[in-house]
């Protein structure tokens, strides 16, 4: 699941075979793109002044279907689901230890008990739960056992971070608006069944898309169709390989997921009246990220 080990600068770049461009037609000079783009640009962030939107004035500061089931003020209890290296899990855990996230990871759930995320959890004293049961993981628990374990750990929020199995409807119903996922593309593009890991970036590069980036979204009963909470944008360069793009997106994932989880733990997520979740800035409550 993780991008290749070699740093991006040392990885073989895609050789560019560019067809001769058709004779230019008279008209405005095309803007430079691709290699002429600012290669140092790793992310694009737009913060434009906004006039107060009436939909926001009626936004409800709530998490879940009503009230504050998670309890305002106290540190929240997090369960993280992984299937691979777990770099997003590590970023969240380190942010919790550093005080940036007002929560604690109290359980790690994985379908791959030997994966890097599970090893990191064990080395940090975080209980590992295997779900679901499979031939390669016969020690896995059932859905009712998973729900019982999450209740036993008094989990407030579930965070998917490179978990590759469908979260069952029973769990989605138990934690409505309390499950987040991070996906490595700008949903709804390049999402759904079959879109995970490097497959996503391969499809993005092959499509000719000029921008990509991670999406943090709430989880519903289907892959990648829940409400989008946060996104970051990175450029896709003409000579990008899927691995180079994966590394650029992953760097932004670690930041935007920590930002979103911090907001979740601070009860700074508000729901616009049309059902769109927004993150209220920690510094200025009149600004939504
Ligand atoms: N109920 C939900 N469960 C999960 C969601 C979700 O949004 N709702 N997100 C996924 C994570 N994900 C994309 O962000 C994702 C993961 C895996 C797949 C996929 O096609 N998986 C394969 C199996 C892969 C394997 O076992 O190696 C498949 O189902 O055939 C798509 C999207 C986590 N769960
Ligand atoms: N569709 C789900 C999906 O592709 N998730 C992606 O798996 C990787 C996990 O990396 P990590 O294990 O190092 O956090 C991340 O890039 C995440 O966006």
From TrEMBL:
Reactions this protein catalyses: N(1)-(5-phospho-beta-D-ribosyl)glycinamide + (6R)-10-formyltetrahydrofolate = N(2)-formyl-N(1)-(5-phospho-beta-D-ribosyl)glycinamide + (6S)-5,6,7,8-tetrahydrofolate + H(+)
GO aspect biological process, one term: 'de novo' IMP biosynthetic process
GO terms for cellular component: chloroplast
Cross-referenced InterPro entries: Formyl_transf_N, Formyl_transf_N_sf, GART, GART_AS
Protein name as annotated: Phosphoribosylglycinamide formyltransferase, chloroplastic
First-listed, main subcellular location of the protein, grouped into a coarse class: plastid
Pathways per UniProt: Purine metabolism; IMP biosynthesis via de novo pathway; N(2)-formyl-N(1)-(5-phospho-D-ribosyl)glycinamide from N(1)-(5-phospho-D-ribosyl)glycinamide (10-formyl THF route): step 1/1
Species whose genome carries this gene: Panicum hallii var. hallii
Coiled coil regions, renumbered to chain: none
């Amino acid at each position: 699941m993780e991008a290749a080990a070699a740093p991006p600068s040392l990885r073989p770049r895609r050789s560019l075979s560019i067809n001769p461009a058709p004779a230019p037609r008279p008209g405005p000079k095309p803007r430079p793109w691709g290699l002429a783009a600012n290669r140092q640009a790793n992310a694009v962030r737009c913060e434009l002044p906004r006039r107060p939107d009436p939909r926001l004035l009626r936004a409800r500061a709530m998490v879940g279907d009503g009230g504050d089931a998670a309890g305002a003020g106290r540190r929240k209890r997090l369960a993280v689901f992984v299937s691979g290296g777990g770099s997003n899990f590590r970023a969240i855990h380190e942010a919790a230890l550093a005080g940036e996230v007002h929560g604690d990871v109290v359980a790690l759930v994985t379908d791959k008990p030997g994966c890097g995320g599970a090893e990191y959890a064990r080395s940090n004293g975080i209980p590992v739960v295997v779900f679901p049961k499979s031939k390669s993981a016969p020690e896995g628990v059932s859905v009712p056992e998973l729900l019982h374990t999450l209740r036993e750990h008094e989990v407030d929020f579930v965070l998917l971070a490179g978990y590759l199995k469908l979260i069952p409807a029973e769990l989605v119903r138990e934690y409505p608006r309390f499950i987040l996922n991070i996906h490595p593309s700008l949903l709804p593009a390049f999402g759904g069944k079959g879109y995970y890991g490097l497959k996503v970036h391969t499809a993005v590069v092959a499509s000719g898309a000029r921008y990509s980036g991670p999406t943090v979204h709430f989880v519903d009963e289907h892959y990648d169709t829940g409400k989008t909470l946060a996104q970051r944008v990175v450029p896709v360069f003409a000579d990008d390989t899927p691995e180079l793009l994966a590394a650029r997106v992953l760097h932004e994932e670690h930041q935007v997921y920590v930002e979103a989880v911090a907001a979740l733990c601070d009860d700074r997520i508000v729901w616009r009246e049309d059902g769109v979740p927004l993150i209220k800035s920690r510094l200025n409550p009149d600004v939504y990220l």
